[in-house]
Structure formats: structure tokens, C-alpha cells
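Exercise 7. Given the encoded structure of a 193-residue chain, write a plausible sequence.
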């Protein structure tokens, strides 16, 4: 299975390695025509406003929007979660959001760089997973068709950090940084059914 990794900015190398170890064939996506060669795509962590601008300047944004509308499965981590969310709080007014996962996220909701943290998550159907949160978004609202697969204790109680809606998976954390490939495998297993 060929899985694209949006290679404009962010943890591209780490996601490529994770996908390879999880049994996929990773392909870097930098131009609109690169999307025709992939069965799914990963939108990596990075800086969401920068990614939004690069999506526009590269021409990949409109092509990716069309591919997602046609059902291209996607896995968004951290900034990728923000890009796939229906609504973004705390972003720039012109910031891109593809709106394929019915969640509202707040950019940097867990705090700035110095408030980054690691913790063990109980992931539904997977067991405990080490999660790395770096300037992570907070999910403030989850739509009725969104499945919450993991939460952390937040200021208002349990806060979703791993969600799935149809062929799309989003995480507030960086599974590519932990060395544990089960979150990538979880995404890929949804594609094989």
C-alpha cells in the first residue's frame, strides 16, 4: 500500500520510517500530481499556519482537498489534526482546514513549547502507548460520528487526543517520535478492511 506523507514541512522523515516499519510503502507528496500515486496520506506535525501557507504556494492544497472529498484516507498528527479538523480555534483567519473530521481544535491548547510532555495513553483496542505532546492542539468538541480512541486528563476532564471518523485518524500527539508503530498500524489496518 502506497501511503503519501505530506512533505512540505514537519516530521516527514519520522513518518516515512514509521510507515515503512508498519508495512506500508511511503511516498513523499510535494506536488499536486504526487497525490495520484497514493492510497492514503499522512499530514505530519509541524507548524499549522506554515503548512497552510505551503499548501497554497505548492498547489497541493486544492488537489488534496479534492482527493479528501473523494474519500482519500488521511492520518493527521498534531498540525495534521488541525488541518483535518472541521473548525480551528486560535488560528489565523486565512488558515487552511480541510474539515473532514468533525472536531473543533484549539491550536497550542496544551500550552507552549515549555509545556510539552509525554505520557502513557490507554488506546482503545491497542493498549498503553507512549505519547509525545509538543505544542499540541486540544480537541474542544467532538461530532456525533467521531470515535474517540484515547483521552488524557485535561483542565475540563477527559480530553480526546486520538480520534477516528471513517477513513480519517487524527492525533494531538506525535506517534512517529515514540518508536511504537501501533498508531500507524491502527491507521493502516482501517485501510485494509
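Solution.
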Amino acid at each position: 500500500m502506497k501511503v503519501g506523507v505530506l512533505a512540505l514541512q514537519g516530521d516527514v522523515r519520522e513518518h516515512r520510517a514509521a510507515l515503512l516499519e508498519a508495512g506500508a510503502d511511503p511516498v513523499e507528496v510535494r506536488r499536486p500530481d504526487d497525490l495520484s500515486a497514493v492510497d492514503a496520506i499522512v499530514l505530519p506535525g509541524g507548524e499549522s499556519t506554515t503548512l497552510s501557507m505551503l499548501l497554497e504556494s505548492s498547489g497541493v492544497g486544492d488537489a488534496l482537498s479534492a482527493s479528501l472529498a473523494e474519500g482519500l484516507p488521511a492520518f493527521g498528527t498534531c498540525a495534521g489534526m488541525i488541518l483535518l479538523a472541521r473548525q480551528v480555534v486560535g488560528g489565523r483567519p486565512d488558515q487552511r482546514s480541510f474539515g473532514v473530521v468533525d472536531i473543533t481544535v484549539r491550536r497550542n491548547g496544551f500550552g507552549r513549547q515549555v509545556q510539552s510532555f509525554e505520557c502513557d495513553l490507554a488506546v482503545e483496542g491497542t493498549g498503553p502507548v507512549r505519547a509525545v505532546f509538543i505544542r499540541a492542539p486540544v480537541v474542544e468538541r467532538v461530532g456525533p460520528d467521531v470515535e474517540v480512541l484515547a483521552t488524557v486528563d485535561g483542565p475540563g476532564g477527559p480530553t480526546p487526543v486520538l480520534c477516528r471518523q471513517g477513513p480519517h485518524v487524527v492525533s494531538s500527539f506525535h506517534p512517529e517520535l515514540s518508536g511504537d508503530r501501533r498508531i500507524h498500524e491502527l491507521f493502516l489496518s482501517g485501510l485494509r478492511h
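Remark. The longest helix spans residues 48-58. Students should compare their own answers with the one above.
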